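Progress against Task 2.4 (sequence-to-structure conversion) is shown through the following example record, which the project officer requested during the mid-term review.
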Amino acid sequence: RQALDDLGITEELACELGITLLKIGMVWPLEKEIVRQFAEGLEEILVVEEKRAVIENQLKEQLYNWRSDVRPRVVGKFDETGEWILPSTGELTPSRIARAIAKRIAPFHRSEDIEQRLKFLDRKERALEARHSSIKRLPWFCSGCPHNTSTKVPDGSRAMAGIGCHWMVLWMDRNTETFTQMGAEGVPWIGQAPFSKTKHVFANLGDGTYYHSGILAIRAAVAAGVNITYKILYNDAVAMTGGQPVEGSLSPARITRQLQGEGVDRIIVMTDEPDKYPVGTEWADGVVIKHRDELERVQKELRLLDGVSILLYDQTCAAEKRRRRKRGLYPDPPKRVFINDLVCEGCGDCSVQSNCVSIVPVETEFGRKRAIDQSSCNKDFSCLNGFCPSFVTVEGGEIRKVKPGTGAALAAEGAPWQVLPEPELPPLDKPYSLLVTGVGGTGVVTIGALLGMAAHIEGKGVTILDQTGLAQKGGAVISHLRIAKRAEDLHAVRISAGNADLVLGCDLVVSADFDALSKMTRGESKAIVNSHEVMTGEFTHKPDLHFPTDELRDLIIESTGAGNAEFLDATRLATALLGDSIATNLFILGYAWQRGLIPVGETAILEAIALNGIAVDANSRAFTWGRRAAVDLPAVQKVIQPAELPESHRISESLQDLVERRAAFLTNYQNAAYGARYEALIRKVQAIEERVFPGREDLTLAVARNYFKLLAIKDEYEVARLYSAPEFRHKLAEQFTGNYRLKLNLAPPLLSRKDPETGHLIKREFGPWVFTLFKILQRLRGLRGTPFDPFGYSQDRRHERALIEEYEAILEETLAKLAPHNYEIAVELASSPTKIRGFGHIKEANIQAAKICEAELLDAFRQPDNTKSAAE
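Structure tokens generated for the chain above:
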């Protein structure tokens, strides 16, 4: 019916054309008499149904024996020539149905409305194919999720995916391929194994699926005698569908006994807490319990075994931990992780090790660093495995709560704020379509529920469709809301292509995705979008991932038309005013309501918030602050006291400022001569660039940043200095309060053991006494580079000093041969140290990659050109 409406086919026109409609209530078995009465006198029946042809096949069977001169033609999934019309796969949208209807009635009727609608759909598809967002909001494992660790496989191995949250590993670059229906995990290997050069595979299998039917897959693998290790991921909850308990009395010990009874001989249990099992736990014979830190080694052992083996990975679901901790049902260790971003190199190894979305980027004067989002951290602590000395363990104390609004904001609420004008709400002469977009877990679905209840309170018709899928794991959430005067006016719950009256964008990325853009019409749709930058899960393995704010904004503006899209950093405003980012969505709803873009009244919305019964006061205030922002945004911004940025987070606004700050930094790093050495080279580059390319400073900027990076080696003295600096304690105090103890996670070369397999240094925890040592050590930095420097003889330090000399030599050659044809290459060449990040083996690997790139650029730079060099 929505498709007919979209084509401009009213009931009157349908009667005139001879179009009639039958809605089937029970699709199987199909009632014969109703169908035959409906079919009499018709030339053709178009069957519209989701997924497989259940109605269509029955209909054809029931009409089969009619005389050919009275039997109507029946089409649905295919037409009479065998071409697809309404496929079983994909979403059956009103737009797709409208195309099918228009094509089928074309021999009988054509109209300008239909032609225009079809042309609009064609234009929309071409436009979206031509331009689309370069970033996607894919679902990801929660921070602290056990699957972040459990789904890893050693180099040279591959895994098969299963049904559950762990299925998301398919797009996480962990050498996991293919998946099956529930209960057939790993079974394809039974057929593949005899024909594959691969000797062994891993198969991921969730505990819920194991109990449901997965044990049969294991039984089949045992019977077939294939080499496979089932990783049974025991997380104590059916997390993918909301955290329900696994039905039945399932436990790790019982699983081991069941599997031993199935004929599995080798079973290893891995956990983050090996000591948690009570004495007397009845494990199967021969079961070994290991800490998850040994996962790599254990998997390498298991892949060499013949037959079926089991790795039972036991760690509670992170989302369940959070829920249970809130209810006091699960231990909450008084321990947090903090990153000293001045020490951090931004290499991303912590994200690689943890795959955790609570590690977020921080843009500083010295490049992109990392921080821990304490509000989402689930205390998994696997980020500590990143080979980096910037991680601090904070034991005791509490997170410093952000106060709900500054004194000025609270005073503004208490004092009579200017009377807010009542907006003119949208008329409901036709159904109003509102698309809400956002990130799973931030309350997007709640917005739809509140508006739906508000519409119900006012006696209006409303439909809500929440498209979440796996999006409760931080992926894209889209809610379709359609509001009308009467329920009878609403047909499809999905918003048709181009039919959104308003896109309420709680997330910039999702608002600029295909699904949202396809609902917008230039000149007709409005958009209110939260412009706050929230990195996607891809950031965990792409440390330099760019957040394309301008690109996303342009896509939305292009789809709505100039003047129809508004962007504001609702997250920053709501957090500063109300003390919690969860208030963002109600804030932006209030903003849109005040703009006259929500077709329900304020009274009904506030009543719906009250009926919801959760954070009623905070949500009501967030809605009101959104209204105020829509009336006078500058006035709202004035009552927010901006947080004082640490000096290292203040970005230089000019080349001179950038150079002076770095020269001062290097003076503190070593001495005045060291700072002068840096500044002298930068001024030399600047003078040559200005002479050869007046007005350009790209090369000078590149050298200023990267020469500094090479000079400011984060050796033992520098790490000690940065931990002894007041800025470190100031940043700690901004996040934590109370009595807390600090511990560091370090791998000092002179004191650390090496991993016998990898040869890498092993990190270990150092107590608060290390800060006293740091105060002494930072005073000894004058020894750096002298014969009395005990650290200067290590391979790392020698290599780092050599990099400085090599860079200076390359720069000398670059400046001597600088010319118009090689200027851009010279800038790239000067920027090559950007890739050199990290510590120890991480830095060494990055140096090798940077040197390969540098060699290619140097070769390109040295290519001759017919013109004489500009420097000459």
